[in-house]
Amino acid sequence: MSTPPWRPPVGPILLRSLVFAAAISALALWRIYAARGWGVVEAAFAHPHAPHLAPILAASLAIKIHLLTIAGAIGVGAVLASGVKGDRLHRTLGWVWSACMLVTALATLFIHTPVGLPSIAGIGLLHIFAAVVLVFLPLGLVAARRHDTLRHARTMSGLLIGGLASRDSLPSCPAG
Fold this sequence. Notes:
two-stranded antiparallel ribbon, 176 residues, mainly alpha
């Protein structure tokens, strides 16, 4: 009689995922506070309301696809970063995360750089990061298929952290 395979406890993994997501949210709030002062953060919580979706609804299809898939990539990435590596859940969510990142990068190539943001011949910093994703995502997947866990971990965590860092360092609206 063989013993059943070891299953990681779900409670600690879920707790780590929630802590990771809370840390990302706290960093985002800190960035708002550092850029615009505490009054902006207080105003955001003073009168709770539904988000104003008109700018998103008026945006191009490429921007809508980009926002939808990057939201999925951030959520799945938080679970992947805090969970057990190598099990079936990790592999399944890894493919979902990879698909989200691929579609995000492809959609980004169709987003025009707004006037006032740095670009060379219409190619902005967001387009450069999309090219980095299109190069390194397949390399990370090939490393996983070859069981090169160190290269896979470094590549994928670099894409995840680089994506979060680029979101905070790249301007998202025209200067002025």
